Amino acid sequence: MAGNSYGTLFRLTTFGESHGEALGGIIDGCPAGISLNFDAIRSEMQRRKPGQSSIVTQRKEEDEVQFLSGIFEGKTTGTPIGFIIPNTNQKSDDYSHIKNSYRPSHADYVYEKKYGVRDYRGGGRSSARETSCRVVAGAIAKQVLSDIKITAFVSSVGEIFLEKPYQEVDFSLIETNAVRCPDKVVAEKMENYIKEIKKLGDTVGGTITCVIQNVPIGLGEPVFDKLHAELGKAMLSINAVKGFEFGSGFCGARMKGSEHNDLYNEDGTTKTNLSGGIQGGISNGMDIYFRVAFKPVATLIQKQEVLNNQNEIVAQQGKGRHDPCVVPRAVPIVEAMAALVLADFYLINKTYQE
Amino acid sequence: MAGNSYGTLFRLTTFGESHGEALGGIIDGCPAGISLNFDAIRSEMQRRKPGQSSIVTQRKEEDEVQFLSGIFEGKTTGTPIGFIIPNTNQKSDDYSHIKNSYRPSHADYVYEKKYGVRDYRGGGRSSARETSCRVVAGAIAKQVLSDIKITAFVSSVGEIFLEKPYQEVDFSLIETNAVRCPDKVVAEKMENYIKEIKKLGDTVGGTITCVIQNVPIGLGEPVFDKLHAELGKAMLSINAVKGFEFGSGFCGARMKGSEHNDLYNEDGTTKTNLSGGIQGGISNGMDIYFRVAFKPVATLIQKQEVLNNQNEIVAQQGKGRHDPCVVPRAVPIVEAMAALVLADFYLINKTYQE
Amino acid sequence: MAGNSYGTLFRLTTFGESHGEALGGIIDGCPAGISLNFDAIRSEMQRRKPGQSSIVTQRKEEDEVQFLSGIFEGKTTGTPIGFIIPNTNQKSDDYSHIKNSYRPSHADYVYEKKYGVRDYRGGGRSSARETSCRVVAGAIAKQVLSDIKITAFVSSVGEIFLEKPYQEVDFSLIETNAVRCPDKVVAEKMENYIKEIKKLGDTVGGTITCVIQNVPIGLGEPVFDKLHAELGKAMLSINAVKGFEFGSGFCGARMKGSEHNDLYNEDGTTKTNLSGGIQGGISNGMDIYFRVAFKPVATLIQKQEVLNNQNEIVAQQGKGRHDPCVVPRAVPIVEAMAALVLADFYLINKTYQE
Amino acid sequence: MAGNSYGTLFRLTTFGESHGEALGGIIDGCPAGISLNFDAIRSEMQRRKPGQSSIVTQRKEEDEVQFLSGIFEGKTTGTPIGFIIPNTNQKSDDYSHIKNSYRPSHADYVYEKKYGVRDYRGGGRSSARETSCRVVAGAIAKQVLSDIKITAFVSSVGEIFLEKPYQEVDFSLIETNAVRCPDKVVAEKMENYIKEIKKLGDTVGGTITCVIQNVPIGLGEPVFDKLHAELGKAMLSINAVKGFEFGSGFCGARMKGSEHNDLYNEDGTTKTNLSGGIQGGISNGMDIYFRVAFKPVATLIQKQEVLNNQNEIVAQQGKGRHDPCVVPRAVPIVEAMAALVLADFYLINKTYQE
Question: Looking at chain C, which runs of residues are DSSP E strands?
C-alpha cells in the first residue's frame, strides 16, 4: 500500500535510502527448484552500476548483492529471497548543503510535505539508487522466465534518434558501446553529445525501446490488469520516466482502423504487429515492444535557484557526481521491471489452466 | 488478481459481458456520510452512453444504473455499494457470425487461447461496454474528492490536433460539441472528419488530454506506486489505449535539464510545470496533466479478412453499430479512471497523518 | 481493505444489507471451463435458507440467486461471476423500533460509532443474511475442488454434545434431521432442547465440526498464511463465532509431546492425526478437521434493556422471527467458507509447480 | 500471496531460515515522525530470546537487530524500515542427521512435497526462529499504538491452569518469573513441571491469554475482516498454535442468549463483557481478551520413529537444544502479532473518518 512492493505472486518489496547503511529487498513467491545463475545476476548489476564508463556518474558504488535466504545449495527453495546491497561509499557530507533546501524538480519538497520529515542525504528513498534492488529481482525473474527474451536499448538521446524499427536492429550491438544504442554511428553521436552536455554541467533526456520475444499466448489479465497497463505502470515507476507507449503508441492515435488492424496468418500469428503483441490486455504470442521516455536528470552541476525551508529562493551551486543522461544505465532497469511484470503474469496464468 | 478490481482502499470490482443480463460492480471502501448527487452520476453515464450524437455508435443502450446497497437515506453508509446496469438491448444474433472466427485486432483469439472458452457475443468481457461500470464508480469517486477538479477533453482526432496548451483552453466549451474538443473550429473539423470516416465504414484514433486541479500536496506513494505510474496504468487499462504521457512526456525526453527543471516560487509553487504536478511520484500541488492515445476502433463496416477456428483466413463483412472514433465517448471514462486513482491515494494519504 | 472481499486468487467480494433491494457478490478468479451444477448451488442455498424447519427462523426469504455474468452455455468463462439475491420480503417496519436504540451484543452501536451513520433496518450489513452470498460462492468453490470433500455437522447445542470422534460419525445421517447432527438420539435431544428454548424466547449456542477429506499434500502457505490460520480467519468471520480449534485444539495444549506427535507410516500417512491434517501450515494429506464455537443469537423474544441514542437505558420487547439456535443453518456456511479457503490455496499452489 | 507478509497498511514482510546467514524483514507503511524507543524494541527481543532462563532452550542466539533504513535521526521517515537479525550461532552440523528424514509432527515432509526441495538445516523457514522478526515489527507497532496496551501471559501449562479471570490478574507479576504466569504459586508449579518434563526429554503444551486495553471504538472491518477474525489468523499463524477463542469463546457455545448478552451502561460501556470487546467484528471500547492454545513442541530429546526419504521408518535419537514448553517465550510473540493486527486496523480506520 505504501508503495514499496511490486507484483502479486512474484512479489518484490524493497527498502533503503541512498545514504543509509544498505538497500535491500525480499522476493516472495519465486518458484522453488531454480538453479540460480549468480553470474547473470552480477552481470545485470554491472550494467546498472555507476562508474562503468565515462558518460555515466563516477560515483563509486560497489553494488555487491548479498543473498541472505531462500536459496539452498544454489537452488531457490520457494521461501522468500532476502538480499541486501550495502552502501559502501555514502559520503553523507556531500549533501549537507541541501539539508534545508529543496532542489527544483526533485522530490525533496514533496517528501517533506507528505511525511513531515525527510532524510535529506542525497535524495534518500527517492534516489534512483533504489533501482539497484529492482535489477537484482529482475535478474532472478528473467531466470524464472527462461524462454522469454527481454531486450532493451537506447533509442534516442535528446534529439538524436535511432531511426530504424526494432525488427532491423542487431541486438548483439547493444553492449558494444557505452550508450547501449545498437547502431555504431548513432551511438557515437549520442556519446559525443552526452560528453558535451556533461562538460556544460547540464543533462539530457532520452528514450529506451524494449522488445519481449517468445512470449506465450495468454499472459495478462483482462479489464484492469491488462498486460500493457501493468508494463506501463512498471516503467512509469522508474525514476525520471515521463511517458510510455506500446505497439503503434501515439502514432496509432493518428491512424485509421483499416491501416491499423493486424490481419491474421493461418497459424494465428499476424502479418503486421501494430498491436505490439497484446490484444485486449493479453499477449497474443507476437513480439511485445514498447518505448519509455526519460526526462533529463534534474541535478545540474551549475548554479541554480532553489527554495529553502525559510521560503526563500537562493542560488545554489550543484555538485556531486551525477549522470548527464540517465538512459544508458536505465536499460537494465527497464528490462528488470519488464521481467518482474512478466514473471507475475506467468505465475498468475498457471492458475487458470487445468 | 484476475484483473477485475481497481484500487486498494477505494476499490472497484466489476463484472459483466456486453451481451449478458447485466453488468455491475461493487465499490468497497467509500467513506460514510457522503450525500450522493445522483444527477451527477446519471450525467456522467449520459456522456459515455451510445447514441448521444450522430458521430458515435447508434446502439440503443439505456445504461440505467441501479444501486442495490451501501446507500441509506441518500447517504453512503461505509458498506459496499453494489450496483447493476441491465443490458436491455443485447441483440445476440448480431454476433452469431463471429462465433467461430477471430476478428483482427480484437481480443477474440487471445480469450479463447487463454481460457479455452469464449463468450463470443459481441466481445463479451472484452467489450468497452464494461467501462460503463467505471463511469459509475468514477462519478462517486469525484464526489469523494469534492475539491479536486478533473477535466478531460479531446485533443486530437487522426491528424487534426488542438494545438493550444491546456492552460489556454476554455473548459466550458468541452460539452458544447459532440467531439468534446474545447475549440469551436477544431471541433468542427474533427466532427466532419469523423463523419467522413464513418461513411467509409472506417475508424480513426485520437488523443485525450486530462487536467487535474486543486490537488493537495502529498498524494501518491513513492517507488512503485507513484501517482503518475498508477494514473498511467489506469489509463492504459481503458480499451484501445496505446500510450500515456504526463507533464513534458515524450517531449521531455528531448530536452536538457537546464530547460526542463521547474524553478520554485517562494510559496512552493513552480514557475513552470513540466513535471506535470508530480515530483518523485507525489503530487506537488500544481496542476496534473497527461495525454492518452487511443488507437482506431478495430471493428470496421467493411469486408475484412478474419481467422476462423479451422485455421482458415476468410473474408467477412463487418456489421453492427460501432463508433467511428472512440475518443468523444472516452472523455468521461478517462475522468472516471483518474477519479478512482485519486480517491484511492487520497484515502491512503490519510493514514500517514498524525 | 474495507473487509468485503475474501481470498486472493479465488476471490469473493460481497455487498448488501438485510433490508436493501438485494444482496450479491462477484467471484473473481474462478477457473474457466467448469460445467456448473446449478442444482448443487441451489441445494446449498436451501440448507441455509430460513423457514426450512420448525427449529429455525420462520422468516420468508426466497434466497433465489441470479447469475449475471461469467457463465456461458453452462460453463464458467474465467471472467468474473456476478450474482444477486433479491430481498423479496424485507418488512422494514419490523425494525422501526430499533432506529434509535442499540440492542445488546449486536453491532448497532459500533456501526454508528465507526461510520457516523447506520442502516438500522434489521442489522443492515451486519445481518447474517450476508452469509447467503458466501454459500453461493462456496458452492461454486466446491465444484472447483471436485475431489476434495468438505463435510460439516453440528457437534453440540448448549450442553448437549455429540461425544464420538468424527471418524466414527456416519456423514449420511447429517441431513436426516433438522439439527444436522449425525446421530439420531443426540439430534433428537438437541431438537427438543431448541424447541424448549424457543418457547422461552431465549436462544442457545453450539458448535460445528468440519472435516475435509482427500486434500492433496501441499496446500497452505508457510509463515503468515498457514492453511489453518486462514481457515480460522474464515470461520471467525462468520457471524456469532467465538472460537476455532483444529486437530487436537485446546486439548492439545494439555498434552505432552510424546503423546501428541503423529508417527509416520511408510507411505507418509500418519498413525494418529492430532495435527489435524496440517503441518507447519501446509496440508499433509490426512483429514483436516476443526471445530467452531457459536455464541447464542443475541436477539431474544423477551423484554430486554437497550441503550438509546439519548444515552438512556430503556426496556424493549424483542420481536421478529429469529433463530433460537444458529448452528443448524450455519452448517452450510462453515462448509462454504472452508471451500473458499481451499479453492484459494488450491489455485495458489498451482503457481509453485513446474 | 506466498505467505510471508502480514497486514495491509502496516505491513510486515519477513525472510530467513533458522540456519541461513540472517533473518530479517521490511515494515512498510509505518507512519512518519515516530521517535522510536530502541530500548523497548530490544527489551521485547530479550523476552523472546533463547537462553533467558533454565526452562527455555539453551541455544545461544544473539538476536541483535540491525535497522538498515526508514529511520533518520531516531525518527521514522515513512519509508520502509528494513532490518536484519544475523544468525550468529547456526551450528549447521547439528542437523545433518535429519537431512534425509522427516521428523514426526514437523514440517519437514510437507515442505519437501510442496516445493520439491528443502533446507533441512533445523527446520529452515518453518523454524520458530522466524518469529524474532515478528517481535521486532510488533515492538514498533506498539509504539504506533501508544495508548493501546497489549498484555499477554501464560494461563496454563499442561494441566496446570491459572484459574482466575484476567480482571483479577496483577499484570505487574508477569515478568517476575520465568514462566510469565502472573501468580507466584501457580508459576512455581508450572516451572517445576516444565523442569520435570525437560528431564524426561519430553515437552508440554500450554495456553496464553492476551488482554488489549484502551482500544478506541471502531477498529475492525465488518464481514470478512472482522477484528477478531484477523486476531485469530494472526495467532494461528504462530508456530505450534492449535486454537483461538475470544470473549466467552468455546464456553459461550454452551450458554443461553439471556446469559450471554452484554447489557449496556448509559455511557455505551457494557456491564459484562462476554463479547470480548468486539461486536460484529468492530471494537466497542471494552477490553479485548482472547486465549491461544499451543501444542507441545514436537522435537523430543528421546528416541523416536521418523520416516526417511527411502520410505522407511527408522529410530532416531532426538538431540539439540529445544524448548520443553513453548509458552513462556511465546508471550512476546502473541503480543507482537496482536500489535501488528491493531496497527493495521488503526491505520485503516483513519481512512473512514472525515
Answer: 5-6, 11-15, 22-28, 66-67, 71-72, 75-76, 81-86, 101-102, 149-157, 160-161, 206-213, 241-246, 278-279, 282-283, 288-294, 303-308, 313-317
